[in-house]
Amino acid sequence: MTMRGATKTARAQKTTVGGETSGHNVSFDRELENLPPALRWREWMLRVEVVLFAAAEPVDRETLARVVGKDCSIDLLIDDLREELSSRPYELVAVAGGWQHRSRSKFAETIRAAATPTRSATETLSDGEAILLMAIAYYQPVTRGELSKIFGKEISRDTVAGLRDAGFIASGPRSPTPGAPYTYVTTKHFLSAFGLETLRDLPELEMLQDAGLLGEGGGGTEHGMFPANPADSADRLGEDLWP
User: Which part of the chain has CATH 1.10.10.10?
Assistant: First the structure.
């Protein structure tokens, strides 16, 4: 067989599954109409569970809908899976606009005892990077210039680039201010890393103020809130925020 003939044969064997190609001869059966209702539901549960188990990142509703019937309720499936996993050391959590398999927090010590010591993405952040990321999360879309006003000192380009390279932030729309600078916004990776389903799950600003991380506002910026003492923050948090 020639190379061209082999290519044509391979293409002919591929079929479309949920808008994507598959190397199988049989179309993917989402509806499972040949199964009794109870067995059909059970198969949908297994499909959703295996997709979540195999994914490294949270899986959204649209992705899960590709493996179940068009009239299947994803929310009810998730509820049944959660009930089934209630006695297991892992659970399904809603995070970053989707769902993800995660070990239960009470087994954290067990996992640490068995695993080679590593640092999570959030643990690698310095105090300065963490508080800068927090400001971006609350004020997004926000420019580097606006962040500099919030902290009372110019924010290092390298620090912003580091947060972007780590996947916590991305470029947002251009600001309507003179020069049309790029703004920065947080990403789904940020939500996932901090265990947030949406930005609405961020702590209230008053809680951060009570913890001494943020001031009560004022100072003349359009955002109306500063770190408790911008001049002292550079010393307390280290110099990593600044050029």
Answer: 33-105, 127-236
Q: Looking at the domain covering 33-105, what would its CATH class be? A: mainly alpha
Residues 194, 198, 200, CA angle at the centre, nearest 5°? 105
Query: For 85-125, how does the pLDDT look when each residue is reduced to its tens digit (9 = 90+)?
Result: 999 988 889 988 899 888 888 887 877 777 655 556 667 78
Nearest C-alpha neighbor of 77 from the set 108, 122, 28, 43: 43
